[in-house]
Batch of 2 targets.
Target 1
Amino acid sequence: MTIVYSDQRHTQPHLAWHETLELHELTAFQSNYLMAFKMDVPDIKDPTLRALYAETIDAVENNLKELIEYVPKAPTIAHRNSADDLTGFYGGQLLIFAKTAVRNYAIAVTETATPKLRETLTRQLNKAIELHAKAFYFMYERGFYPSYNLQKLLTNDVMLAKKALSM
């Protein structure tokens, strides 16, 4: 079976919903870590690691600048002013950690042959799932993660990315 890919450009009035959601995930993830990296740099003593952080910060800043150019092409978007409160940042950092932990534990469980280790990893996976739920509802209830409102979700992403870029 041969698959032929067209190189024709398809022009659409907006991004597709699924790619908009991926745009959200990448923007939120990178914005959160950019802020953390920038806060961490002053404490890093090793010059090689400090240089690696600086390189990473530059790369993530460039990523975010490129990504936020696509946000106006999302199916819907609105703008609102941001506050200096970092509660959303800290909650988002915890949510991203929990989500990543769930993914990593799920993969680890599938790679484990030792029954006792599998039990341990499964127990820890379940705790990571519980942490994710707690972090998600913390964010959701306070309006930091409006998961059922794509317009607000993207607006928050843009604000977070701009805040991370301005640090």
Target 2
Amino acid sequence: MLPAEIAPADLVHTAHLPLADVALRLGTAALLGLMLGLNRELRGKAAGLRTHTLLSVSAAVATLVALELYYDLGSDGQGNPPDPIRAIQGVAQAIGLICAGIIIQGRGTRVRNLTTAATLWMAASLGLACGAGLYGIALLSGGIALALLLTLSVVERRFFGDKEEEDATD
């Protein structure tokens, strides 16, 4: 049951950003996360399409919510505005924990899964940029990340030889 002061129309729009802008930000985050996840999926990694896409979109959501709260809450009356940067800090801590788990999950004495952890971090960063509406940064950095993922594995194999099977496909 909805409280009387909330009209159904209030549930389908945001307070300060037009719904079309929110959809564009979330859609761009999903697309960029999907592109990174596709690279990991094609290499047979556990963190693939769904993980990268959901992580990127969730970071965008955290950013959008922080921005909306920033606009809604304004100042505390003492000249202290709320700090939306704390949302970025929270995303960074959460993704750090996830990435650490992925790295530790590798067995043996060798460090593994660093590239997958790095692409998850990039997916979160792309989501933060999309959530903030910084499309130029998101598209440029997403394109650079994808180009690096696609080309550096070939360069590593050609000039540095094949590592163990796990590392060669990372």
